[in-house]
Design the sequence.
C-alpha cells in the first residue's frame, strides 16, 4: 500500500510494455495515414495517386497559397463592387464551412466503404 492507502497497481511486464508501445505506434501511424488520406481529398490532383508524404505536403502548401491568393483577389473584387470586408468575411466563412462539411462527408463515405470491403480491418502492412 502507498501512503494514501490505495492499493498499488501491478507493474507491467516488459512484454506488456512492448505490446502497449507497438499498439500505440500502430495507432499513431493509422492517424497519420488517415490525415494524409483526408488531405488527398482536399488537394486537387492528389486523390488516388499514392503520392509520397513529402509530395503531399508540398502540394498542400502550394494549394493553400493559391487559396489565400484567391481569397485576397475575391476580397478586393468585393470591395470594388461595394461589399464591406465584414460581409465578405461572413460569406467566405459560410462557404468554407460548407466545403469542409462536404469534404468530411466524402471522407466518411470512403472510410465506411473501405471498412465494408475489408480494407480497414486494422491490420498494418510492413
Sequence:
Amino acid at each position: 500500500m502507498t501512503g494514501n492507502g490505495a492499493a498499488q497497481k501491478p507493474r507491467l511486464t516488459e512484454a506488456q510494455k512492448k505490446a502497449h508501445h507497438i499498439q500505440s505506434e500502430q495507432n499513431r501511424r493509422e492517424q497519420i495515414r488517415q490525415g494524409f488520406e483526408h488531405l488527398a481529398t482536399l488537394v486537387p490532383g492528389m486523390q488516388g495517386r499514392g503520392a509520397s508524404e513529402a509530395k503531399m505536403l508540398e502540394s498542400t502548401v502550394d494549394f493553400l497559397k493559391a487559396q489565400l491568393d484567391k481569397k485576397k483577389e475575391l476580397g478586393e473584387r468585393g470591395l470594388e463592387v461595394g461589399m464591406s470586408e465584414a460581409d465578405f468575411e461572413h460569406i467566405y466563412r459560410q462557404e468554407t464551412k460548407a466545403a469542409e462539411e462536404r469534404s468530411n462527408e466524402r471522407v466518411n463515405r470512403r472510410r465506411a466503404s473501405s471498412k465494408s470491403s475489408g480494407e480497414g480491418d486494422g491490420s498494418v502492412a510492413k
Observations:
- Residues 120-126 have pLDDT under 50 and may be disordered.
- The CA atoms of residues 78 and 84 lie 7 Å apart.
